[in-house]
Amino acid sequence: MEKVNKQGFFIWLLKNIKILPKLLKLIGRLMKDSRVNMLPKAGLVFSLVYLISPIDLIPDFVVPIIGQLDDIAILYLALRYFFTSIPHAVLEEHMAAIQKGE
Q1: Where do the domains of the chain lie?
Q2: Residues 6+ apart with CB under 8 A from 44
Q3: Under a CB-based contact definition with an 8 Å cutoff, are residues 67 and 59 in contact?
Q4: pLDDT at 60
Q5: pLDDT tens digit string along 16-53?
Q6: Could you give the C-alpha distances from 20 to 15, 38, 79, 94, in angstroms and in order?
Q7: In terms of Cα–Cα distance, which of 47, 46, 49, 67 is closest to 57?
Q8: How would you class 28 by CB atoms within 10 Å of its CB: exposed for 0-12, middle for 13-18, buried for 19 or more?
């Protein structure tokens, strides 16, 4: 198994952190769009509430690494479900609008 190159990871992170504002704007636009089903929206909201909630399935202070991984896993699954549930045309429309600066 190949060792993780820490320097490479941080370079990757710095390159990709630039997309965070556009990603957040895209999520905001999609949350307001009536063509997007309510279930994926609710899943994303509940995952964010879970993330900031002091109550966890696996408490962070009991099992530090695993406790934080469950938060990340739940957010990842909610985001994945959110984006895969959106019709491709709707997603493309919002992405194009963001690229134009709207």
Answers
A1: 20-100
A2: 27, 31, 78, 79, 82
A3: yes
A4: 67
A5: 788 889 999 999 999 999 999 999 999 999 999 988 88
A6: 10, 23, 13, 15
A7: 67
A8: exposed
